[in-house]
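The freezer alarm interrupted the setup, so I double-checked each line after restarting. Inputs confirmed:
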Amino acid sequence: MKVLVVGANGQIGRHFVKMLASSDIHTPKAMIRKEEQVSFFNSLGVETVLTSLEGSVEEITEAMKGCDAVVFAAGSGGKTGADKTLLIDLDGAAKTIEAAERTGTERFLMISAINADKRAMWKEDMAHYYVAKHHADNILRASGLVYTIIRPGILTNDSGTGKVLAVEDLDSGEISREDVARVLFNALDNERVFNKTFAVVSGDREIDTALNQL
Amino acid sequence: MKVLVVGANGQIGRHFVKMLASSDIHTPKAMIRKEEQVSFFNSLGVETVLTSLEGSVEEITEAMKGCDAVVFAAGSGGKTGADKTLLIDLDGAAKTIEAAERTGTERFLMISAINADKRAMWKEDMAHYYVAKHHADNILRASGLVYTIIRPGILTNDSGTGKVLAVEDLDSGEISREDVARVLFNALDNERVFNKTFAVVSGDREIDTALNQL
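Predicted 3D structure, all chains:
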């Protein structure tokens, strides 16, 4: 599959693009925002497209043409304000979902957040972020796309172990960004996780085993 | 009908509650956030319930019990940040919609904003507000409720004229808060506007005439 990676320059995005680039079965197309981000992907031999999530649905649709799947790994991050959380994490996701519907790109994987469905667990200083993720997930589920919503625990920069715990309902835990990228990679064409939402943290099962038990 | 007015202490909310209180056919229940807001409603002989939109769906469900309709006229306002826009204008609306579904309160009227469906018209400094309104409207439309989404133009504090222009597609205009409240009042049980979304600005038609032409 040719996979549009939205948020390719993020930390999870870069891990994931590398895995796709070294794969025999999938090919990445890195959707990035800034010209200066191109060289990293060029050095991997990866195609890029410069498109902002603050742009129009038409622009995102154009970026998506020719792709078979979309991975939404973008986020405004902790350094910007809640206004960008609304524009990127919520409306950027909504526009990407609309673009996938328009282009008939049926397969859509979303990086969400653990507890995005549990309002009672949202700490006050992060509540706006969870609101954005919660509703982006709901929009994806209500679409006609073949979705997989992955809700990682607290993200770390540790090296991946390739072993996780993946379950539908889980309150807490940590996982490395590299392992999240590997979960994305293995989930891409695994029918067991089509139209499923699950939490994932570091654990003791091989990723494929963990996904197949969902 | 007994009408739960969410955001009853806002400027549109107060106008609307007064209209309901002086009506022979409808009765308001004012949902407000602070104890010090009670006296205004007591002086009108209007029932109040102290419930925050930042609380749980269960709390809003409790506030809604015994009501036949809900009007969502709440907003975090321009003085707070985008984090509150996410929590009140988007998730507060989403929770109120969930509460209406749980209680079987089928009739739901929403105060939205002109151009909430047109991303290309969103000015940068207000874009986060439009994102919240856009998605709150979409959640309401996707619910099973009998909705009316009213999208006023720029709000003024002028006295109401009772005359408006109400059309599905409109880019600009002004309207007084008192006239918006009157549109809400007349729309409550007018089947012509059930499951409709429309813009409203000041104009030259009587409100009932304008609504019946939608």
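Quick read of the result. Residues 9 and 40 of chain A are 9 Å apart (CA to CA).
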